[in-house]
Design brief:
Number of strands: 3
Radius of gyration: 19 Å
Helix content: 40-55%
Shape: globular
Number of domains: 1
Distance between the termini: 73 Å
Mean pLDDT: 84
Strand content: 5-15%
Order of helices and strands: HEHHEEHHHH
Number of helices: 7
Structural class: mainly alpha
Largest sheet: 3 strands, antiparallel
């Protein structure tokens, strides 16, 4: 594959893994985080929060492959984690507001890191399951009417 530089969506995926995994939150110790990382559905939810859009399957697969190739994240058994090198990038990035974070990371990736591909593939079933779970999170919880509640069905005291 010809080196075309880092895409904005690569940085978007990276920042989503970082924030979903709470890597940057108060510079938490790796020992205080979930050791297994975060699932794809959490990455999608964070990505949507950052950009009001869900990355498509190609953006996810390409971004993860490049980030794996640069050793900035790892993926094992469906769990995404930021590596030590990724944490260093996150700590050293230019600071700004949340709206400019992906742009800042994209700039750093293009200046400091060569793109390298990895052979990781996003399984169709894993992608579909994450999308179903994420869209299920968006559905409002139905309200239970007083008439249908267990208290109303039992009757008075």
């Amino acid at each position: 594959m010809m080196d075309e530089g880092w895409a904005w969506s690569d940085a978007w995926i990276f920042v989503s893994v970082v924030i979903a995994g709470k890597v940057g939150r108060h510079r938490r110790s790796p020992l205080s985080r979930r050791p297994e990382g975060v699932r794809l559905v959490d990455v999608l939810a964070t990505a949507e929060h950052l950009n009001q859009a869900i990355p498509d399957r190609t953006e996810i697969e390409t971004g993860v492959r490049r980030l794996l190739g640069a050793d900035l994240i790892s993926v094992a058994d469906g769990w995404f984690q930021v590596t030590s090198a990724g944490e260093q990038l996150w700590r050293d990035r230019p600071r700004g507001g949340l709206t400019t974070t992906v742009d800042s990371v994209h700039s750093v990736l293009n200046r400091r890191y060569a793109t390298a591909d990895n052979d990781w593939r996003l399984d169709d079933q894993d992608h579909n399951a994450a999308m179903v779970e994420y869209t299920g999170r968006l559905l409002p919880t139905p309200r239970q009417s007083v008439e249908n509640s267990t208290v109303a069905q039992r009757g008075p005291g």
